[in-house]
From TrEMBL:
Residues 537-559 have a biased composition (Basic residues). The chain crosses the membrane at residues 66-86. The keyword Transferase applies. Keywords: Membrane, Transferase, Transmembrane, Transmembrane helix. Residues 520-561 are annotated as: Disordered. It comes from the Eukaryota. Residues 196-509 form the TOD1/MUCI70 glycosyltransferase-like domain. The lineage of its organism: Eukaryota, Viridiplantae, Streptophyta, Embryophyta, Tracheophyta. The keyword Transmembrane helix applies. This is Putative tRNA (Met) cytidine acetyltransferase.
């Protein structure tokens, strides 16, 4: 209804008498027809004015339900467009993203691979088909009944809750008794190389401009190249070139009592070292009674560290600190404590000639998983004889070299000389062409090793590079590995660094710990005392509002003032 229709209804015929006359005279039919014509004309005029607006919109635009439907449809359209843009941008990353921080190899025994964290769903199936390879060459598939056969990694946390930096990830370990039962009864086969001996030289002479030491024997470049020509029987430089046996007049010397201890047979040992008083001794945790009984833990220290431990009453004449059996080193071969630490790290097979398996951890690390479980997970389950974690961020030697220079790990000229030497030998930046090798840069603070000729040769030649060039063993790892792998069918299990962080906890070096400010004592805040409600009827107080609240405050102040005045009067 509109204004025109209302006017017709209220002012057409006037009084009731006039209406009756019109009905009696037969005029009402004419009037009604005129009314219909005039109203039709007026409505048609209104429609002409409202013609730009469609009838449907005119009828429903004011309806709330219709408006809500429009908003919902618009929201769905925006969501669909956003999903299309995300899927369009989820194209396959370049090679640096594929094999960089997270790597590309599938998680062992799990349905997920590391690339799934950085690849979009659009390329996920394609990359799974392309890179479905074992963790390393020679790895086996677990039988269906194995307790870890169905283990999968949980999905990564959402971006809003993701913690920056490296962190541990879940690892499926067997129970200790099952891990012990999984230990092979005999040694693994060593490909090609069956008999490895070591060069002895009472008077080593440096004949070439490159580095080296009396302890390492100054092998020539020709001897270095010959050592990569794998044969059934070989004799190579491997430290301790002087004296009749390692640790006896060779440099890096042991006490006589310790020499006898180190010659004993053990299935497994755990070893670490602290030189230059550089670290604080870390005590292993979660070690089973079987491991405490059968696996010795050896900690190598120099005389400086020994003196510090005695002054702090950490070390007594018993030579035991917790589970660690302390072995003091005399006549260290290098002035650099970090380079001295490479001797036990890479040459444990020379110090312990009668050991089957060894786990090396740097002095700043704390072992928190039983050694039997670690060996089962990273060696025995994988049919591997050498395992090391890859770097959590870098996988290319050239990038690692630049990072070492930027961090001041070694003088830049020595790093450049080493990298240029490897470049001339054919070392190239890492690429997908190296798969199934997943990285050229290890996180070398943990070594898990079976002592057989081929792994002993690998660590000997790796040590020779550290002795010849810089002590940064991450730079020389790949060149030694690749040269051996081109000659024999052998590989290394380079597992995830987050898995390494699952069984060792990393601490800071002593100098950093001493520079840190002491922790701020926690402030204990006591809850406020409850008001005294004795003699009062419990009940719920209704808070005052506005003027009543202010007036109540004024009354409270007046009452308090009168109480103080009364107290003063009483005192007088």
């Amino acid at each position: 209804m509109n204004g025109g229709s209302l006017g017709l209804r209220t002012g057409s015929y006037g009084l009731l008498q006039n209406i009756n006359r019109a009905i009696a005279g037969g005029e009402i039919s004419k009037s009604l027809s005129n009314v219909r014509k005039s109203s039709t004309k007026m409505l048609s005029g209104i429609r002409e004015k409202e013609r730009p607006l469609p009838n449907a919109w005119y009828r429903y635009i004011g309806c709330r339900k219709f408006s809500m439907l429009l908003l919902i449809a618009f929201a769905l359209l925006v969501f669909a467009l956003g999903s299309f843009v995300v899927n369009k941008d989820s194209t396959s990353p370049n090679v640096l993203q594929r094999i960089g921080t997270l790597g590309i190899v599938p998680y062992v025994n799990g349905g997920h691979h590391e690339a799934s964290q950085i690849l979009g769903e659009k390329d996920k199936k394609k990359d799974e088909n392309r890179f479905q390879i074992p963790a390393f060459k020679g790895a086996s598939v677990l039988p269906f009944h194995h307790p870890c056969a169905n283990f999968t990694f949980p999905p990564p946390p959402p971006p809003t809750r993701r913690r920056l930096g490296p962190r541990p990830c879940p690892v499926c370990y067997l129970p200790v008794d099952q891990a012990i039962a999984s230990m092979p009864s005999s040694s693994s086969a060593s490909p090609v190389l069956h008999n490895l001996t070591y060069v002895l030289n009472e008077n080593p002479i440096k004949s070439e401009p490159h580095g080296g030491s009396d302890f390492g024997g100054y092998p020539s470049l020709k001897q270095r190249n010959d050592s990569f020509d794998i044969k059934e029987s070989m004799a190579v430089h491997c430290g301790f070139v002087k004296g009749s046996k390692p640790g006896h007049g060779t440099g890096f010397d042991f006490d006589e009592s310790d020499l006898a201890e180190l010659q004993q047979f053990h299935d497994i040992i755990v070893a670490s070292a602290i030189f230059g008083n550089y670290d604080i001794i870390q005590h292993p945790q979660n070690i089973s009674e079987e491991a405490k009984k059968n696996i010795p833990f050896y900690m190598f220290v120099d005389e400086e560290t020994e003196a510090f431990m005695k002054n702090r009453s950490i070390l007594s004449s018993s030579k035991w600190v917790g589970l660690w059996r302390i072995v003091v080193i005399h006549n260290v071969p290098y002035s650099d404590a970090r380079r001295n630490g490479k001797v036990p790290k890479l040459l444990l097979h020379r110090i312990f000639p009668n050991v089957r398996y060894s786990i090396w951890i740097d002095g700043k690390l704390q072992l928190v998983v039983d050694p039997y479980q670690v060996l089962e997970r990273f060696l025995w389950r994988q049919n591997a004889n050498f395992a090391i974690s890859r770097h959590y961020r870098r996988f290319d030697v050239f990038v690692e070299a630049e990072a070492n220079k930027a961090a001041g790990k070694y003088d830049n000229s020595s790093i450049d000389e080493q990298v240029d030497f490897y470049k001339k030998e054919g070392l190239t930046p890492y690429s997908e062409a190296k798969l199934p090798i997943t990285s050229d840069v290890p996180e070398g603070c943990v070594l898990i090793k079976e002592h057989i000729p081929i792994t002993n040769l690998f660590t000997c030649l790796w040590f020779n590079e550290v002795d010849r060039f810089t002590s940064r063993d991450q730079l020389s790892f790949a060149i030694v590995r690749d040269k051996i792998m081109t000659k024999v069918d052998w590989s290394i299990n380079m597992f995830l660094d987050c898995e390494r962080r699952n069984f060792v906890i990393q601490s800071y070096h002593r100098d950093l710990l001493e520079q840190m400010p002491p922790p701020v004592p926690a402030v204990v805040r006591r809850p406020p005392a409850l008001p005294n409600t004795r003699g009062k009827t419990p009940g719920k107080r209704i808070p005052r509002r506005g003027r009543d609240r202010r007036s109540g405050s004024r009354r409270h102040r007046k009452a308090a003032a009168s109480n103080r005045e009364q107290f003063l009067l009483n005192a007088v």
